[in-house]
Specification:
Strands 10-5-2-11-1-12 form a six-stranded mixed sheet. By secondary structure, the chain is of the alpha+beta class. It is built from 22 helices and 22 strands. Strand 8 and strand 9 form a beta hairpin. It has three domains: 203 residues, no CATH class; 164 residues, no CATH class; 199 residues, no CATH class. The chain is elongated, with a radius of gyration of 32 Å. 51% of the residues lie in helices and 18% in strands. Helix 13 packs antiparallel against helix 21 and helix 19 packs antiparallel against helix 21.
Length: 763
């Protein structure tokens, strides 16, 4: 088929050609977009972590320390490339405000620091190390959009003020999943503002490439070095940086796979219908001696041209969409460094998708080879199964509902208060953190006693549970030592989500998180030997090994997803305390929290009171917004796809049955009668697709979403659906799209004339 014949064929079937091109463009766009966003995120995170010099091992510590012991340990370890101890001034959120925004309700641990001279640098928008002047402060970039900040705003810390000179990128605390945020000031201002907070330490090590991080972590613990705080590693930092935006990309990738399957089905149906319509022309070509390959090449050339156009449009659309969708990534991590390579990868993805589509096109066109010239000329035989075009409408409706509901259900699940049970946190209303500050342990115990006494005397409190976390050494079956963060307390009051077994009820039981179970090779019923301290603190340290039976495995995303729960009452030092509580039904949690924040508003008490809903939003708000963006894109694509499918396939049905419709009109049936008949069949197909799609979006969709949320450490979860979105909003939008397309297509029925049936009748 020469160029003129291709153009004429496209012009003769504008709607079919346009629909085919749209499906090719959508498939290319989504795969290209997924590759673009993933490559940009990965490259930006790597570039920021390399430029800033992110530590491979970080131990946070509140309390006194002997720096010479830490330096001696680092010098004795051959895998240590560099080490440093940074100071972090933890400030009560109640005394912080920037511009018109107060940080009193902020769920992060906010504090001041000054620039490191070696690694773990805080950088500006150009990824250059920042050196603040006197009276200046650089604010975490994640707060710029959240609070509407700009350079020149005034930050208030108690009675002191600083001028916001700009915004910083923090390679280890950029993500909202990191519980702390650093504000950068000059060393002189840091010393001046020390009375407003409590000082903590960041003990950091850079290791040579290829070093065993677990072995180094174990050696650090065995050396008895400071560890009153969480331990963070380079891989965990990388995961937290990439996770919130990575979830959005995974959702888009899932949608792109479904759209590709829809495209393959639609394009196959369109080609078969077109070939059925072209049977006389195909028979004529066969009769005059055109070979099978020649006929196949004629048709394939047309779809190759449409594929090239669709690929170009898809890549262009992906480039345009990548801008707004990657705006937050660029804000947090900077521009990627290998834009040329990234675009080449995106182009390769689009070409691979088009190659898959063209393979389907080629296989479908080959069906003409089984048809003889006589069968084609006398309209006998069949090229493909295209008798009922309403079946593809139902299938594609189901797929459209699926790609709408999966991201919507993921968003509603993460945003629901019940999701905390997959985070290793019991379902309660309020969380109170009581952590050690720079004061002695006695002060921590006094503060904890004051808080618990107030709660026990408060008749508005319906239930509460104190959880105390410490670091324990455990002996694995192979003899290796493993550091385990164990949370002790009554785990039956506010239980978390267990994928296997149950919570520990006695001192000889322990439950471990999924990641710990996988890393240690454990399962329920196994014995874990835990070293516990038994001395009274007045003499040499004494300990014993307790065999604890694993009674449960649970989902957790806190502290890197590596935690355990038990009921131990030994003398192992407590690293932090958390109180979970619920109030009586007639009590306002917001007012209660406000009252207690005022009561414990002392600058150095280390008490933080947070509504669980606020804690969830503060941790996953960024992820929820990203998945919401992906859900909006999915919704628009689903409506567009269904609109095009109904518009095109209904017109093809009307074309195939034109002679029958003409005969019906000759027998006295009106256009309205015929439209009602078509509409009835369409409604049956669409509603069947809606029912199947809702089921698929909830049941199989839950499994697929579980794979995505499993990357966050949330395993074994169940959808927490929004009934309005699932049963009303999504079906309503798709019904509107289908109705609009049907209304346009059914206009063709009015153009059918009764006398047309007197012409040549074609099946």
């Amino acid at each position: 088929m020469n160029r003129r014949l291709i153009i004429n064929s496209i012009r003769a079937e504008k709607s079919v050609s346009a629909a085919t091109c749209i499906f090719m463009a959508l498939s290319a766009m989504l795969f290209s977009l997924s590759i673009l966003l993933f490559a940009e995120l990965s490259d930006s995170v790597d570039r920021l972590m390399t430029t800033a010099g992110t530590p491979d091992f970080l131990q946070m510590h509140a309390g006194e320390l002997k720096e010479e012991n830490i330096r001696a340990f680092g010098a004795s370890r051959p895998e240590v490339e560099d080490q440093q101890i940074l100071r972090f001034l933890n400030l009560p959120n109640g005394i912080l405000s920037i511009g018109d925004a107060s940080l009193a309700e902020n769920t992060q641990d906010n504090g001041l620091c000054f620039q490191s001279g070696r690694f773990d640098l805080l950088v500006d928008a150009d990824n250059r190390a920042i050196q603040p002047g006197k009276g200046e402060v650089y604010v975490p970039v994640c707060y710029r959009a959240e609070y509407g900040l700009q350079a020149g705003d005034i930050m208030r810390i108690g009675t002191e003020t600083l001028r916001v000179a700009g915004f910083l990128r923090d390679s280890q605390m950029n993500s909202m999943m990191a519980s702390s945020k650093r504000f950068l000031v000059s060393e002189e201002d840091y010393e001046r503002l020390k009375p407003f907070g409590s000082e903590e330490y960041l003990i950091e090590f850079r290791l040579y490439k290829g070093s065993d991080l677990n072995a180094f972590s174990t050696a650090y613990r065995e050396a008895g070095l400071p560890q009153n705080g969480p331990t963070i590693t380079g891989p965990l930092i990388r995961m937290m940086n990439a996770l919130s935006d990575g979830m959005m990309i995974l959702v888009i990738l899932l949608v792109s796979v479904v759209i590709l399957l829809i495209s393959l089905l639609c394009i196959r149906t369109l080609i078969l219908t077109q070939l059925e319509k072209d049977k006389p022309e195909i028979g004529m070509l066969k009769a005059v001696g055109i070979s099978k390959k020649g006929i196949r090449d004629m048709y394939f050339s047309k779809y190759l041209l449409l594929s090239l156009i669709g690929c170009a449009v898809g890549i262009l659309a992906a480039m345009l969409l990548a801008g707004p969708l990657s705006a937050q990534m660029r804000e947090l991590y900077g521009d990627p460094g290998h834009t040329g390579l990234i675009r080449l990868l995106a182009l390769s993805g689009a070409l691979i998708v088009e190659a898959v589509i063209l393979c389907t096109v080629s296989r479908t066109i080959r069906k003409t080879e089984k048809l003889t010239a006589v069968e084609a000329l006398f309209l006998r035989g069949s090229i493909g199964k295209t008798k009922n075009l309403f079946v593809p409408v139902g299938i594609i409706t189901a797929a459209a509902v699926f790609i709408m509901l999966v991201p919507w259900n993921m968003k509603s699940t993460i945003a629901a208060p019940e999701f905390v049970t997959y985070m290793g946190i019991g379902k309660s209303q309020i969380r109170i953190d009581v952590r050690q500050t720079a004061d002695e342990t006695a002060d921590l115990e006094e503060t904890l006693g004051s808080v618990t006494d107030s709660l026990l005397k408060d008749n508005r409190v319906a239930d509460l549970s104190l959880m105390q976390t410490g670091s324990y050494q455990v002996n694995l079956p192979d003899g290796a030592l493993y550091e385990l963060m164990i949370e002790n307390g009554d785990h039956g009051r506010f239980p978390v989500q267990y994928t296997e077994g149950r919570y520990p009820e006695s001192a000889d039981e322990i439950a471990v998180s999924i990641l710990n179970a996988e890393e240690m090779g454990l399962q329920t019923g196994d014995i874990l030997k835990v070293r516990v301290i038994t001395d009274d603190g007045t003499g040499p340290e004494q300990f014993e090994i307790l065999p604890l039976r694993i009674c449960g495995i649970y989902s957790d995303v806190t502290n890197g997803g590596k935690t355990a729960k038990a009921c131990l009452t030994d003398r192992t030092p407590v690293m932090w305390n958390v109180i979970y509580l619920s109030l009586n039904e007639d009590i306002s949690p917001e007012e209660w929290v406000r009252e207690y924040k005022e009561r414990f508003a002392g600058t150095n008490q280390g008490v933080r009171i947070t509504l669980i809903s606020d804690y969830l939003q503060g941790t996953y708000g960024q992820t929820i917004r990203n998945i919401s963006n992906a859900a909006a894109v999915s919704c628009a694509l689903a409506c567009l796809v269904l609109f095009v499918v109904v518009l095109l396939l209904l017109r093809l049905v009307i074309w195939k049955e034109r002679q029958d419709s003409s005969l019906m009109k000759a027998l006295g049936f009106s256009s309205a009668d015929l439209k009602r008949a078509y509409l009835k069949k369409m409604v049956v197909s669409v509603f069947t697709g809606l029912i199947i799609g809702i089921f698929a979006g909830i049941v199989p969709g839950q499994g697929l979403a579980g794979l995505l949320l499993g990357t966050m450490g949330a395993h074994g979860f169940r959808f927490i659906i929004d009934p309005f979105a699932v049963f009303l909003a999504a079906p309503g939008m798709l019904l509107f799209a289908a109705a609009a397309a049907a209304g346009i297509s059914l206009r063709e029925v009015s153009r059918i004339r009764a006398f047309e049936c007197l012409g040549v009748y074609r099946n």
